[in-house]
């Protein structure tokens, strides 16, 4: 279907430094992404600009330099460490006479290589189709041809219209399948909720050591490697915590700066594990010089998937790469564990992590007595029954419902957000 240059495994990389903070990317991370995709870098072309050029993203002179680099190194593909518009991609392909890929396309390619489960493959295909659909007009050269042949002459669908329709139909089919997967995951979550089993979700920047930590805690044997996006399909395992009992630990896909929106949307069912978790274990590579920026990037993705209100415990991992760092628990002003310093590779500090987790989960329950007037009783009482959080209830002489509830802090926060300030008014002080 594509009338475009074939992409190979030998690439010229392009990295532009912008004075605008929002356009800034990291060259080392880009080279790791390229390596993770199994592509060999022949040459890196760098430059500086105030803002992107509308035609080539880079200036005319820099675009010629990239074309020469492709010719001299005999490269198959040019990969940009930035998001290109469809027009820029096509203009660069005409100039360089080879395939041009942007940062989003590169990440999608890595995800396509890593997907193992049926769900993972569907999610990646959905993200790729959404990405391709924006590139139909400029990316293909045969699009204005109309169908010919006997019985098909005259006004009819152009090739572009046909391709758009086929894409839409395929996207709808994938969304229907993913809806079934989401329902299955929701059933599993409901079953865990009924059994009052807390869920702990591992989140963090890609290559922070989440899967290594997951294997250390659960002995699950999940694939772990020193590469970006080694984990794509979520894995859930049961663990035992003192004073808390059974808990579910979920290993999820890593985040990255400027994670493509198509991916976030496609992985909605997977990321639901993070949204519905009782606590997040935010794994940070403490040996990375830019760990603070990585933490900020994770916070931005959590906000995008509406999981920023879930309580989090920071795990400062890879202390074996730092001199003079010993396993320890950091506490906030109120004495609550805020961060744990560990080495998942060497198993140092794992006992402290368990202790901090136990302390946090045990302290996350809230208990309230509510006095609910008759006009609000039906819906709220039904909600509390569904959440299985009612401890005691009775009616007073005025018909008000006096109810004692006990639930996770995060569930109360979500309920408060949904019901607004009215819920606070019902609390008996």
Automatic annotation (TrEMBL):
Residues of the Hflx-type G domain: 198-365
Subunit composition and interactions: Monomer. Associates with the 50S ribosomal subunit.
Function: GTPase that associates with the 50S ribosomal subunit and may have a role during protein synthesis or ribosome biogenesis.
InterPro entries assigned: EFG_III/V (IPR035647), G_HFLX_dom (IPR030394), GTP-bd (IPR006073), GTP-bd_M (IPR032305), GTPase_HflX (IPR016496), GTPase_HflX_N (IPR025121), GTPase_HflX_N_sf (IPR042108), HflX_C (IPR045498)
Family: Belongs to the TRAFAC class OBG-HflX-like GTPase superfamily. HflX GTPase family.
UniProt xrefs under CDD domains: HflX
Subcellular location: Cytoplasm
Pfam families reported in the protein's UniProt record: GTP-bdg_M, GTP-bdg_N, HflX_C, MMR_HSR1
Name of the molecule in the record: GTPase HflX
Superkingdom of origin organism: Bacteria
Xref: Gene3D superfamilies: 6.10.250.2860, GTPase HflX, N-terminal domain, P-loop containing nucleotide triphosphate hydrolases
Keywords recorded for this protein, A-Z: Cytoplasm, GTP-binding, Magnesium, Metal-binding, Nucleotide-binding
């Amino acid at each position: 279907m594509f009338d475009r240059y074939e992409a190979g495994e030998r690439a010229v990389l392009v990295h532009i430094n912008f004075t605008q903070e929002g356009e800034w990317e990291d060259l080392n991370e880009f080279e790791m992404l390229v390596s993770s995709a199994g592509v060999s870098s022949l040459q890196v072309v760098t430059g500086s600009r105030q803002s992107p050029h509308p035609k080539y993203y880079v200036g005319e002179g820099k675009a010629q330099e990239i074309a020469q680099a492709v010719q001299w190194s005999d490269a198959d593909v040019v990969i940009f460490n930035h998001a290109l518009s469809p027009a820029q991609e096509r203009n660069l392909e005409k100039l360089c006479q080879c395939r041009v890929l942007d940062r989003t396309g590169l990440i999608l390619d890595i995800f396509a290589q890593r997907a193992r489960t049926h769900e993972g493959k569907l999610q990646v295909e959905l993200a790729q189709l959404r990405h391709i659909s924006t590139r139909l007009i400029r990316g293909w050269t045969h699009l204005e041809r109309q169908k010919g042949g006997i019985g098909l002459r005259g006004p009819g669908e152009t090739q572009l219209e046909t391709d758009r329709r086929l894409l839409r139909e395929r996207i709808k089919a994938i969304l229907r399948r993913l809806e079934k997967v989401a329902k299955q995951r929701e059933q599993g979550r409901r079953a865990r909720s009924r059994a009052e089993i807390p869920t702990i979700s591992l989140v963090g920047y890609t290559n922070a050591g989440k899967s290594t930590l997951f294997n250390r805690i659960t002995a699950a044997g999940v694939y772990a490697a020193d590469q970006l996006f080694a984990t794509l399909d979520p894995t859930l395992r049961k663990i035992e915590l003192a004073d808390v009992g059974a808990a579910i630990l979920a290993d999820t896909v890593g985040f990255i700066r400027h994670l493509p929106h198509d991916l976030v949307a496609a992985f909605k069912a997977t990321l639901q594990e993070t949204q519905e978790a009782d606590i997040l274990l935010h794994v940070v590579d403490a040996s990375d010089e830019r760990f603070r920026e990585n933490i900020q990037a994770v916070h931005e993705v959590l906000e995008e998937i509406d999981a920023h209100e879930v309580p989090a415990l920071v795990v400062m991992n890879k202390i074996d790469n730092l001199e003079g760092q010993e396993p320890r628990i950091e506490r906030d002003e109120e004495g609550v564990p805020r961060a744990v310093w560990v080495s998942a590779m060497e198993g140092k500090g794992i006992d402290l992590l368990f202790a901090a987790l136990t302390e946090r989960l045990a302290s996350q329950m809230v208990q309230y007595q509510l006095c609910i007037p008759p006009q609000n009783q039906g819906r709220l009482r039904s909600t509390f029954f569904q959440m299985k959080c009612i401890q005691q209830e009775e009616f007073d002489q005025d018909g008000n419902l006096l109810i004692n509830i006990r639930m996770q802090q995060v569930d109360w926060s979500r309920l408060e957000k949904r019901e607004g300030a009215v819920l606070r008014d019902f609390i008996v002080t």
